[in-house]
Amino acid sequence: MGSTELIYTLRTVARSGRSTTEKSIAPIAGVAEAELGPVLAAINRTEHAAGRPLLAAVVVGANGLPGAAFFTSTRELGLQTESDERTVWARELRH
Question: What is the pTM assigned to this prediction?
Fold first, then answer.
């Protein structure tokens, strides 16, 4: 599996207006769930540089929220101006 398949999967999920889980995405990425954060952060950087919403917004953990790496990514990209992480996440989902 590879990044092309992962990006295709994330775009398909985003277009459907749904979310997917870290557990279901990790095998597509070819990594363990615990190693997924850096993979998704790299995708976020690429998408942001291209002027697109962050695809990793559609990937949630068991708690129904994105992992910590997603929010770290939003701060590093200068997207988190609000103090509430859920507001940032909701904004990225709406794009």
Answer: 0.87
Supply φ then ψ for residue 65, to 5 degrees.
-120, 155
Place of tokens 């859920």: 86
* H helix runs in 17-82, sequence order: 22-29, 36-49, 68-76
More confident residue, 85 or 52: 52
Sign of the CA dihedral with 20 first, then 29, 72, and 49 last? negative
Non-local (6+) Cβ contacts of 73 within 8 A are 40, 41, 44, 45, 54, 56
Q: How far apart are the first and last CA of the chain?
A: 27
Collapse the DSSP code of 53 into the 3-class scheme (helix H, G, I; strand E, B; otherwise coil) and give the result. coil
What residues form DSSP beta bridges with 73? none
Nearest residue to 70 (alpha-carbon basis) of 91, 28, 50? 91
